[in-house]
Amino acid sequence: MGKKNVHITSLGLLHFLVTSGRIVSAKPAKAHCKNPYFWRCYGVPHTCPPGCPKFCQVDCKICKPYCACDKPGAVCQDPRFIGGDGIMFYFHGRKDKDFCLVSDAGIHINGHFIGKNNRKGRDFTWVQSIGVLFGRHRLFVCARKVSRWHAFDDNIHIQLDGADVEIPSGEGAVWESRGAGLTIERVAAENDVVVEVTGLVEIRARVVPITAEESRVHGYDIAEDDDCFAHLELSFKLSSPSASLHGILGQTYAPDYRSRVKIGAAMPIMGGEKKFSSSHLFATDCAVSRFGTEGEEEGNELKTANVAKSQ
After folding, report:
1. Where would one find the signal peptide in this protein (predicted)?
2. For residue range 87-105, what is the model confidence (pLDDT) as tens digits?
3. Following CA atoms 182, 187, 190, 193 in sequence, which dihedral angle do they give, to the nearest 10 degrees?
4. pTM summary value
5. What is the 3-state secondary structure (H, E, C) of 22-39?
6. What gap in Å lies between CA 203 and CA 74, rounded to an integer?
């Protein structure tokens, strides 16, 4: 009887450790292609690369796993960006402030930064939420604030025009607003979605915590039972960016863009905090805003065409 009780207690402890996110398998995670169109690759398990052993995706076309945070359009960690030009850089911003990530005539995306003071003189920061403006719509995607991380709790919160979006449960579940041209799909049972605004952008948003190991390695000094600083890991795919696209990430897609970061540096930093600063999550008042300028651009094109005809 004594041995049986010990066995039950051990299983209970193991269940607690797994569901609370306190235990990490020594083996890398597995990922597979989820698109049946690529039938040769569909469902085939792949071991995640060393750079992202806990989570990766599979490129179904070439049937290989990859780290999403290393692809162009990624915004992860203490914001680490991979520009449209493929160059990696950091933009630290400030905690509790909002910054313009992408701004174009038809879409504007701000990010809200959370963070923690650092003795070295700058804040440790992470993107906690994004505000997406398109047409007359406002889309809000955020990581809920949680003190202790539980792997099977869904900590992603989404609103469209101020109303909560209730996505059906289960991997592959889809929520759609035809009027807004918006589709949201769960790519995992919890904390991982793909948001598509038709003709404008596809955003993959995944909620992750700061783990005790990350805090120790990077010196974040985050108390385990206080706030795990749940934040978003993001990946953007812009459908039809214009030549005037701007924002911290957006500018790197412009055809004449030349990176100003020190590429050989251990931590290449993107400056310009003031010009990317927004007054709130849905503001379009950053100095580089391009939102709502479609009419102006069409007018300029018409003027140019008329001038060309008259010459």
Report:
1. 1-21
2. 999 998 999 999 999 999 9
3. -30
4. 0.84
5. CCCCCCCCEEEECCCCCC
6. 10
